[in-house]
Amino acid sequence: MALADKQAFHTRLLDIGKERYHDKHPFHVMLHGGRCTMTQVRAWVINRYYYQCRIPMKDAAFLSRCDDPDLRRAWRSRIEDHDGGIDAGGGIRRWLRLAEAVGLDPGYVASTKGVLPATRFAVDAYVSFVREKPLLEAVASSLTELFAPKIHSERIAGLLEHYAFADDAALAYFRQRLTEAPRDVEFGLSYVLDRADTMEKQDAAAAALTFKTDVLWAQLDALHSAYVAPGRIPPGGWDGREGVLSEMTSREAAE
């Protein structure tokens, strides 16, 4: 059995993010640079909600497979982070505040109507992956959180600079993730580094992380194709009008 080098494996995981994380996608470059129209911003909010609302379902599927109570105790905070309490809190509620800030009906966004077929396919594939794969690979797929603080910081700065809707309430989701994601990834990374003790396991974990970057990238590919170029909205995709409560325009960087 091939011996494993933990430090080299850690570097390998970081390199996957450097090469494949979706902060490099042209849609995010447009969004953070203030070059998206409000229709494009809203399409992103609608489609990204589908990912956000499936994350706690993914984590619940993971927990249902854990025999180790210590692992369950460490992991269950992720569900609380996204779902919040009975009456308040949670990333899903914060995302719907963003939806309202960009002029969308939060109820429409929460219905998941208008979500692109490719978004559904990619996100559902991620939930199935975590439900079905070995626990090591399921945890490894979460390690895109290693790279999340950077994109959240860039997003906060870019949205505040370029868009009139952006304020503390609208961007609360991203600010909260600046503290939640590092905590989650500290546990997840330690788990993967400790248990991927053969080259075969390291290969499987690296493939899981690569898969997750593909899930994130595919969602943005779908958005770009439908709402940027060639601008071909597939059947069932948001039409740019349904669920819009108020009109607004993006604020140009020059202003």
Helix and strand topology:
Layout: H1 6-20, H2 26-32, H3 38-63, H4 69-75, H5 77-83, H6 91-101, H7 106-111, H8 117-132, H9 135-140, H10 148-162, H11 172-195, H12 199-227
Spans of at least 5 consecutive residues with low confidence: 249-255
Order of helices and strands: HHHHHHHHHHHH
State which percent range the strand residues make up. Answer: under 5%
Query: How many helical stretches?
Result: 12
**Overall radius of gyration:** 18 Å
Tell me, rounded to a whole number, the average pLDDT: 94
Shape: globular
Q: What CATH architecture would you give?
A: Up-down Bundle
Largest sheet: none
List keywords for this structure.
single chain; 12 helices; mainly alpha; 255 residues; Heme Oxygenase, Chain A
Summarize the structure.
The chain is mainly alpha-helical and 255 residues long. 66% of the residues lie in helices and 0% in strands. The protein is globular.
